Amino acid sequence: MEIVEGIGIGVAAVLGALLILFVRRALVTRSGGIIRLSVRTSTLLDGRGWAPGFGRFVGDELRWYRMFSFALRPKRVLSRKGLAVERRRLPEGQERFSMPADWVILRCTSHHAPVEIAMARSTVTGFLSWLEAAPPGAASPRLASQDWPAA
What does the alpha-carbon distance between residue 114 and residue 144 come to, in Å, rounded to a whole number? Predict the structure, then answer.
């Protein structure tokens, strides 16, 4: 009988964790402005270190939330003021297995450190429009390279 109770408690814990993940995602995404976005969190191994998640545009910030996290706060915040796209490339090597085929990787520089983000090719245009947009009178960030390879 103890084994059945243990299995029941384990199943209830897993279902509770899944419920919390879905409720968290609903809370974060309820106001719109959401894109699927992966961020490279580690560069120790080539092609590895990508974490799936979603980004939310809030004013001059792109807030990135991990897909499988219980945190209500974003894991990373990219400010439009200090962000510039350095280069664009297609997934290479191991990266092709960890993200959809139509995704593009953008290497960006920010105030803190370089960051690599991956998103759908159709999302890149909107991201670049948001990046170049600025309130009247403010300097608009520039793209670091205009000679990108055709994607």
Answer: 13
Q: What residues have CB less than 8 Å from 57, skipping those under 6 apart? A: 33, 35, 63, 130
What's the rounded Cα separation, in Å, for the pair 54 and 52? 7
What are the tokens at 27?
Answer: 């809370």
Phi, psi (rounded to 5 degrees) for 94:
-60, -25
Give the count of domains, the chain: 2
Contacts of 56 (CB under 8 A, 6+ apart): 28, 29, 33, 34, 35, 62, 63, 65, 74
Q: pLDDT of 51-90, one tens digit each?
A: 999 999 888 889 999 988 888 889 989 888 888 899 999 9
Amino acid at 133: A
Q: Does 93 reside within a domain? A: yes
144 in a domain, yes or no?
no
3-state secondary structure of 72: coil
Which pTM was predicted?
0.75
Taking the C-alpha atoms of residue 81 and residue 141, their distance in angstroms, rounded to an integer, is 7
Range of the domain at 19: 1-30
